[in-house]
C-alpha cells in the first residue's frame, strides 16, 4: 500500500527576495539607526528645551513641540526615502547583481519592489514612534483627523519613495546616489519646516514652500494633526509630485 507524500510548499520569488532583503537590512545598524532612531531621538532632544514646551502666540497658542512632531514624522519619511533605498539599489546595479538576476526566475523588479516595501515600512514605523513619544512623553495630542492624517502620511511616503527611485535612476554608483541624496536631503528638511515651521513662515515664503512636495506635506500633516482637514491643494501638490517623480524614475531607470 503506497502512501502519498505532500509536495513541499514553494515560496514565491517575491517573498524570498523580501525576506532576504529584510535580513540584509537588519545587518546594517547604521542604516536602521538613522532611519528609525534619529527622528525620535531628535524629538526627545527638542522636547528638553523648556521654551519648546510653552504655548506660542505666533503658533496660534500651540507649543513648538506640538508643531515639531509632524515635522519629525515627515523627517523620518524624507530620510528613509532619500538616503536609505538609493545607495542599496544603485550598489546592486554597480556590482552587476541586477544584471545577473535577469537570468533567473527572480526578476529585478521584485528586488526594487521589495526594497520599496521595506523602506516604506521603516519610514512609517519611525513616524509612529515619533507620534507615540510625542504623546507619552510631551503630552502632544494625537492627530485629531486620523483618517486625513493617515492618507496624507501614505501619500507623502509614496512621494518620498518616488524621489528615492528617481535618485536611484540617475545615479551611476552608490557613492553618487548617497551624495545626491544628501544634497537633496537638507533642502527638503528646510521645506518640511525643520528650522522654521511652515506655520510660522512669512506668507510669501509659506506659499513658495507649499509648492514643494515636502512643504505641502508638512502643511497637510500639520492641519490634520490639529483637527482641520488638509487643504486639497496641499494633498494635490504631494500627489502631483509623486506621479511626476515616479514617471521620471521609470523613464530613466536602468537595470544595468
From TrEMBL:
The chain crosses the membrane at residues 31-52, 67-89, 110-134, 146-169, 176-196, 235-253. Pfam families: ABC2_membrane_3. It is a multi-pass membrane protein. One of its GO terms (molecular function) is ABC-type transporter activity. Keywords: Membrane, Transmembrane, Transmembrane helix. This is ABC transporter permease. InterPro entries: ABC-2_transporter (IPR052902), ABC2_TM (IPR013525), ABC2_TM_bact-type (IPR047817). It comes from Kribbella sandramycini.
Amino acid at each position: 500500500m503506497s502512501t502519498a507524500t505532500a509536495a513541499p510548499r514553494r515560496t514565491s520569488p517575491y517573498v524570498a527576495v523580501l525576506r532576504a532583503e529584510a535580513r540584509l537590512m537588519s545587518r546594517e545598524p547604521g542604516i536602521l539607526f538613522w532611519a528609525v532612531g534619529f527622528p525620535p531621538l531628535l524629538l526627545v532632544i527638542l522636547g528638553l528645551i523648556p521654551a519648546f514646551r510653552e504655548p506660542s502666540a505666533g503658533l496660534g497658542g500651540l507649543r513648538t513641540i506640538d508643531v515639531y512632531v509632524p515635522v519629525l514624522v515627515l523627517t523620518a519619511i524624507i530620510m528613509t526615502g532619500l538616503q536609505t533605498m538609493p545607495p542599496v539599489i544603485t550598489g546592486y546595479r554597480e556590482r552587476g547583481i541586477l544584471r545577473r538576476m535577469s537570468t533567473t526566475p527572480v526578476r529585478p523588479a521584485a528586488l526594487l519592489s521589495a526594497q520599496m516595501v521595506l523602506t516604506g515600512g521603516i519610514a512609517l514605523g519611525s513616524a509612529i514612534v515619533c507620534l507615540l513619544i510625542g504623546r507619552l512623553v510631551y503630552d502632544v495630542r494625537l492627530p485629531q483627523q486620523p483618517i486625513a492624517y493617515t492618507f496624507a502620511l501614505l501619500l507623502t511616503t509614496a512621494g518620498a519613495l518616488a524621489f528615492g527611485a528617481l535618485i536611484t535612476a540617475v545615479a551611476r554608483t552608490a557613492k553618487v546616489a548617497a551624495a545626491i541624496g544628501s544634497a537633496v536631503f537638507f533642502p527638503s528638511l528646510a521645506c518640511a519646516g525643520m528650522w522654521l515651521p511652515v506655520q510660522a513662515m512669512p506668507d510669501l515664503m509659506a506659499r513658495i514652500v507649499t509648492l514643494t512636495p515636502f512643504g505641502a506635506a508638512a502643511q497637510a500633516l500639520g492641519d490634520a494633526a490639529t483637527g482641520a482637514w488638509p487643504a486639497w491643494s496641499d494633498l494635490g501638490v504631494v500627489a502631483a509630485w509623486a506621479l511626476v517623480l515616479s514617471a521620471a524614475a521609470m523613464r530613466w531607470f536602468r537595470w544595468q
